[in-house]
Amino acid sequence: MFIVTNRNVNKNGKDLKLFGDTANENGPNELRLVAAEKKEGKWTVNILPDKITEKMKTEVNLTDAGVTYYASDYVAAVLFKKLQAEKRNLLFFVHGYNNNIEDVLERAARLEALYNVEVLVFSWPANGGGVWGTASYLSDKRDARASTGALERCLGRMAALFREQVEKVKIEIVKKVDKQLGSNASTEKRNALIMRLQEDKCPISINMMTHSMGNYLYQYTLYPESSNAHELLFDNVILAAADANNKDHKQWVDKIPCRKSVYITINEDDSALKLSRAKLGEQQLPRLGHHLHNLDAKQAIYVDFTEVVGSSHAYFEGDAVSNSNSSAFRFFDRVFNGESVYDELSFNAGINCYRLK
To answer: What's this model's pTM, rounded to 2 decimal places?
Structure first.
């Protein structure tokens, strides 16, 4: 599993103790790539070098002479090869409030096991700077706003690397098609074969879930018109249990680029979002993931999980999806893998919201 993070690194730490509670000492936009693996119940974590070693280049066949390859090139090559070989999809996961690295890794591992996806994590310093309660919540909101540049850089680099990987596949396919069809084939026939072979060779779907306060972070990443967050990268975008204001959410939700759908999940009984609003009284408006009113973003598909998942805040895991036949499990399984779920939903036109059947 790989993690992209702007957390600071404790030079004397090891494995999970490598990561601190604050942003990178070189600034909150500074990113590191980390490889994590769980063996015998314990997480082993290695920070990848900024410029990769000759051994790493050979491992992923990055052999162009004179080219400097970075950790992001290495991770992209490893993931693309793995996803192709295992016929799995990629879920980019942005976590929420009060999560340390171990919390994040454990949740990502559960997502991989439940939904048969490869999870790439964006982790920001979201454990309250070592404080608790309202002070912790406010600290994490400040860290989320400070981390927008890091998330923007991450999304821009991901989009560029994905295009590179797809282009490599396309070049190979074009050569094969030209050899197979010859020079007399019609453009229509040639393009149709290229498209079919490309879908067979590269059937990978990339989707994103932002959870809880991760939505607040994503919201502010989208506001600048020049932001790399506007790059088209994901098939589905899932705004799960969003700890962001319901008010005026259409102003940023309608900016989200996606090939298929933007889903906003809502649970009126969400205990964490109830507490989130109560902590700050009048300063905290109704939360997007907790409120079945003013659902007016044009491209959003609102899905009501109330009465299906109890008081859960993370209803993509745990009891709500423990039965693979449950409507909640089927919903997340399909959207995390780039599919549509309209046949799983019924629509309430009065509030512009779908409900799980």
So the answer is: 0.90
